Every structure is written in structure tokens, then in C-alpha cells.
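Human:
Take a look at this sequence-structure pair and walk me through the C-alpha cells.
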Amino acid sequence: MKKLRIGLLARIIIAIIIGVLLGQVLPAPFVRVFITFNSLFSEFLNFVIPLIILGLVTVAIANIGNKAGKLLLITVAIAYGSTLFAGFLSYFTGASLFPLMIEPGTSLEEIAGSDSLLPYFTVSIPPLMGVMTSLVLAFMLGLGLAHLNGQTLKKAAQDFQEIIVKVIEKVIIPVLPLYIFGIFLNMTYSGQAFSILLVFIQIIGVIFGIHLFVLILQYSIAGLLVKQNPFKLLARMLPAYFTALGTQSSAATIPVTLAQTVKNGVSPQIAGFVVPLCATIHLSGSTLKIVACALALMIMQGMPYDFPLFAGFICLLGIAMVAAPGVPGGAIMASLGVLQSVLGFGEDTQALMIALYIAMDSFGTACNVTGDGAIALAVDQLTKHSRK
């Protein structure tokens, strides 16, 4: 008999519901058990975040650096530009709409500090390095590995990447529902959960609207370049879109994305290069989600969200998520360091970011991979004359 598997999104939703229900009836000693667990897990997360960046970004940069030529530069420039555009569009849309929808309140850290419930005990796990140190070191190592002839250090970096991916897949992702359950249990006990859930529903609606607009715009630009109906081009990519909805993984959707991109008239050679590369470096859907979620949570807590702050955040985010592995929730894991170092997110805010992001994870992935087809059309058109 086949074992029933519950997806990550379903587990997160169940965890939130149970946390809200039990938070109204459980006595303080039981709530403190989960507060203690969350304290330990957040220490582990803070420890592992720089290692996630180092392990994943190093190999990603090394692999990109191994490919040379005009085709790579054009693809990377378009993909990064698309990611940045989605991030800035999300910021300006959210900055216009969210203040009308969200009432600023007390920060989550102040709420936690004002509550009398504390962990039974804490264990400090200091990270080996800061987030920015990790990011700079990853770039230095990645670029160096791309130009080394030897394979020893490259193999070591790939092995370390495998360890980090296993930590994400086998430790962090499975434990996340319990962690988020503890967050909502504590917030319900403190009387804050319902206002936060209302904000969640409003944010998800806005994000879905932005991601549809981004896809239509991407294919409108691609349609102008290739002189074809953008809606027909987008319609041919729907199998990739719905495959990504089901798998929640850009990597797992590559065969379908590749096939539909070729059906849109892209040469097999260009599609075979651009689609797998963009599955790693093009994250417009993920970026717009993270920016919108971060902005909403900052407005809710009364934190400053000026444009210069978010401009730096979006540029760094586009780089950090290049390394997002092809697992559900990989992008938010890769972005936690930037959220912490640039926006000053604490452990409770990071937990809410994870919950809110995963609630829309499949739609962000679908936006990413569908946009890859538009980039392939543009690259094919822009390099057509040079390939003759």
C-alpha cells in the first residue's frame, strides 16, 4: 500500500491551524515547551544560514563561470534584470497598497519580549561568520574555482554543497512545520495571531496579481522581439507553469520548460543552454514574493521601509538566490541571511516570512520557470545574427 505523503504547504497550513487552536487552551507550561524548541531551532538556523550561502553560492558561481562567451553574458544580464525588475515592481506596488491594507503595530520582537513566557533553557550556537562575510567569500571561492584546472577543491566544494542541500531537505524543511506551529502557538497565547493571519490573506492576493502582471509583461516584450502574439506564446508555456505548480521545483520542471520553449520557436541549441541556466539564476517570481512579504511585515511592525534600504536588499537578494536549490522552500532558505543582515529581521519575523513564502511557493516557482521561456525567446532573437 502506497504511503500517503502530505506536501510542505499542507503541513505548514495544518501547523498554523493547530497552533492557533491550541494557543487558546494550552496552559503556559506546555506553551513554554515549544518556545524552548523554537529557541533552539532558531539558534541552529542562525548558525547554518552563512553555511547555506557559502555552500550553495560558491558552486553556483563556479558553474556559471565555467561557461564563457557572449551567450552567457546576454542570458545572465537578461535574467538578473528580470529578477531586479520583479523585485522593484513588487516594492513599489506594495509600498502603494500595503499601507492602506495593514495597520502598523508593535514589532514581533517587542511582543515576545513583553510576554512573561520564556524558554525553559537556551543554548547559544554562534555562527562561524557573518552573512556578508559568507557571501563575499562564496563569490571569491566561486570565481576562483571557475578558473582552476585542478578538481580537488571543486570536488570538495560540491561535496559541501551536497551536505548543505541534505541539511535543508532532511533537517530544516521537515522541522519547519513544528517551528511555525510554535510561533503561532505563542502568538495566539499572546493574542496576536488573528491580526497576522488577516495580513497574510491580503498579501497573498496582491502577490498573485503582481506575478500575473510580470508574466504578461515578459511575454509582451518577447513577443515584440520575435513579432508573435505574446498570449499565444504564454499559452504554450502553460504545461510548464502547471508542472511547476505541482512539483514546486524549477529543476524538476526543466524537461517540460525545454519542450514548450522549443515549441515556441526557440532553436534547440539556445533552449538547451538558456532553460537549465535560468532554472538557477532567474528567480523573478521568488524575488517579488520575498520583497512583498518582507515589506508587508515591516509595515505591520512599524519598521522603516525606505527605497534605498530596499534597493540594496533587492540587488543582494537577486544574487543570493542564484544558489537556491531545486527543493521546495529553497529560495527562502537562501534569502534568510539577507533578510537578517540588511532588513534586520529577527527570528519571529523570519519564521513568518517562511510561512508566508511557502504559502505561495508553487506560484513563485511557476512564475520563475514560465519566465524562462520568455528569456529564451529574447536570447534566441538577440543572438540569431551572430550564429549565422
In short: The chain has a mean pLDDT of 80. The first helix runs from residue 8 to 22.
